[in-house]
């Protein structure tokens, strides 16, 4: 995860300088989707899981950084605080519900099926 964080910084800087944030955002979602696809089908050796998690967290870290950047650009000056509050609240709700729903899916469905649902939500984000 640390290496994916380091790799995320140049991607964000280059996208900001060139005005290509939309492409970077879509690429980050695609990286998350690819990571989920591979986690569902790849052999689970230490090296393969580490490589797949690198891909997944590269996309995740890019999204995490760029969403906050977008928030500060798009929100009007008088509403930036409220927008940040709504963003942080929905992010916390997503963290809580995501873990609970993911655990429930894993308990009641096969592992491959729960990965399929996660892939579907990532695909919907594209």
TrEMBL record:
Keywords: Membrane, Transmembrane, Transmembrane helix. One of its GO terms (molecular function) is transmembrane transporter activity. Residues 1-126 form the Major facilitator superfamily (MFS) profile domain. The keyword Transmembrane applies. The lineage of its organism: Bacteria, Pseudomonadati, Pseudomonadota, Betaproteobacteria, Burkholderiales. The gene is yajR_1. The chain crosses the membrane at residues 21-39, 45-63, 84-106. InterPro entries: MFS_dom, MFS_trans_sf. This is Inner membrane transport protein YajR. It comes from Paraburkholderia rhynchosiae. It comes from the Bacteria.
């Amino acid at each position: 995860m640390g290496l994916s964080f380091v790799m995320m910084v140049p991607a964000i800087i280059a996208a900001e300088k060139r005005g290509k944030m939309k492409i970077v955002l879509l690429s980050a979602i695609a990286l998350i989707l690819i990571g989920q696809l591979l986690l569902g089908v790849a052999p689970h050796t230490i090296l393969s899981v580490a490589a797949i998690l690198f891909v997944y967290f590269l996309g995740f870290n890019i999204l995490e950084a760029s969403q906050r950047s977008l928030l500060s650009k798009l929100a009007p000056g008088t509403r930036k605080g409220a927008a940040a509050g709504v963003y942080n609240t929905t992010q916390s709700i997503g963290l809580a519900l995501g873990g609970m729903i993911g655990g429930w899916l894993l308990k009641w469905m096969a592992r491959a099926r729960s990965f399929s649902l996660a892939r579907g939500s990532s695909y919907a984000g594209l």
